[in-house]
Design a protein that fits this description.
13 strands; 12 helices; D-amino Acid Aminotransferase, Chain A, domain 1; Dala_Dala_lig_C; 341 residues; Rossmann fold
C-alpha cells in the first residue's frame, strides 16, 4: 500500500490540543472523530497534517503549494459557519486538482437541502414524507400551516446532526407548528421544513462507493423505555447525550427481525437514493419503516460522522472492515473520484 500525504481539513475549534493524549481526559469527547481519524492515518503509515479552515480558503492553497498532498481528508461541515456552503471547499479542491474523501460538491449541494432532496426523490418515485417549507424571510401563517398531514416534525432545512430537533419539534396542529417554526427561525436564522411524522422503526443504512456501490448492514435507533408522553424521534439529546440515552433506554444497534424481503428492499432503495442525489464517497441514509411495510426516506447525510463509535464505523466493522480499513477505503474512493465533482 502506497503511503500517502494526507491533508486533514478541520474546523479551527476542532483541532485537537497537542497535550490531549489520555482517552479519559474529559476534553476527549469533543475531538473524538478528529483524533480517531488522525490516529488511524498514523497506524496506516500515512503522513498527515492538519489544515484549519473557517472562512478563508487561503490555508488550503498554501498547504497544497508547499506540501503537495496526495489527498485531502475532508472533515468540514460548513464554510464560514454556513452549512449550506460546505460544497465550496470540495469545489475548490477539485479546481486545485486535489482528490478528497467523502462526497462531491454536487452531491453535497443536493443532499444538504432537505426540501430539494425530497423533491428530487419524489420525482423519481422514491417515497418521502409530505412536507412544507417555511422560509425564515417570511412570517409563518396559519394559512400556510393548514391542510397538512399532522402530526409533523419541524426541523432546519439545512442543518445536520439533529440540530434544532427536540421533543417540541413534534407538532399536532397548525398552532403548534407555527410556534415551533418561529422558535426555529429565531434559533438558527434559517428556513424550517415541516415534514409528516411517520410512525415506525428508525433505520440507518450506509452506502459507500462512486460507481460501484456497497451497502453496509442496517442499523436501528431503538427506544425501549420512553413513556407515552414522549415521541420516538432522533432529537439532538438522543444523538449527542449518552446519559439521556441511558436514562430512557435509547440505543443504536443492528436492526433485528426485519420483515421478510425488507432488507433487500432497503439495500436497493439506498443505492437508488445515492444515485439520484449524485453522491459519492459515502453517506448514511435515515429511513422510517412504517407499520404497513412502506419505507420512507427521511434524509441523506453525506459525509456522516465516522468516529469509531458512530453507526458508519459499526456497520463497516460488521461488513468486515476494521476502523483503519474503513479510513483507507474512504481514501481510496477519494483518490478515484476526481471526475465526480
Amino acid at each position: 500500500m502506497k503511503k500517502l500525504k494526507v491533508m486533514m481539513l478541520l474546523h479551527p475549534e476542532m483541532v485537537p490540543p497537542g497535550d490531549l493524549k489520555d482517552p479519559e481526559d474529559p476534553r476527549h469527547d469533543k475531538y473524538r472523530t478528529e483524533m480517531d481519524v488522525q490516529q488511524a492515518l498514523q497506524k496506516l503509515g500515512h503522513q498527515a497534517i492538519i489544515v484549519p479552515v473557517h472562512d478563508d480558503i487561503a490555508p488550503i492553497r498554501q498547504a497544497v503549494e508547499s506540501w503537495q498532498p496526495d489527498v485531502a481528508f475532508n472533515m468540514l461541515e460548513d464554510f464560514a459557519g454556513f452549512g449550506a456552503l460546505d460544497f465550496y471547499i470540495v469545489s475548490y479542491l477539485h479546481m486545485l486538482g486535489v482528490p478528497y474523501t467523502g462526497c462531491n460538491a454536487r452531491g453535497l449541494l443536493l443532499s444538504r437541502d432537505k426540501a430539494l432532496s425530497k423533491k428530487l426523490m419524489a420525482y423519481h418515485r422514491i417515497r418521502v414524507p409530505r412536507f412544507r417549507v417555511f422560509p425564515a424571510s417570511r412570517k409563518a401563517t396559519l394559512k400556510r400551516a393548514a391542510h397538512l398531514p399532522y402530526p409533523m416534525i419541524v426541523k432546519s432545512k439545512i442543518e445536520q446532526g439533529s440540530v434544532g430537533i427536540a421533543q417540541s419539534s413534534y407538532v399536532a396542529n397548525a398552532e403548534e407548528l407555527i410556534e415551533r417554526v418561529q422558535q426555529l427561525h429565531q434559533m438558527t436564522g434559517e428556513d424550517a421544513i415541516a415534514e409528516q411524522y411517520v410512525e415506525g422503526r428508525e433505520l440507518y443504512i450506509t452506502v459507500m462507493g462512486n460507481q460501484r456501490l456497497e451497502v453496509l448492514p442496517i442499523r436501528e435507533l431503538v427506544f425501549d423505555k420512553l413513556d407515552d408522553s414522549m415521541h420516538r424521534i432522533a432529537t439532538y439529546q438522543v444523538k449527542w447525550n449518552e446519559k439521556y440515552r441511558d436514562k430512557w433506554g435509547i440505543d443504536y444497534r443492528f436492526a433485528r427481525n426485519l420483515p421478510q424481503g425488507v432488507e433487500a428492499q432497503i439495500n436497493h432503495l439506498a443505492k437508488r437514493v445515492y444515485r439520484v442525489l449524485e453522491m459519492s464517497g459515502y453517506a448514511r441514509l435515515d429511513l422510517r419503516l412504517a407499520g404497513d411495510g412502506k419505507i420512507y426516506v427521511l434524509e441523506a447525510n453525506a459525509n456522516a460522522a465516522i468516529s469509531r463509535d458512530d453507526d458508519v464505523a459499526y456497520a463497516a466493522q460488521k461488513a468486515g472492515y476494521n476502523y483503519e480499513q474503513l479510513i483507507q477505503k474512504l481514501l481510496n474512493l477519494g483518490l478515484r473520484a476526481m471526475h465526480y465533482s
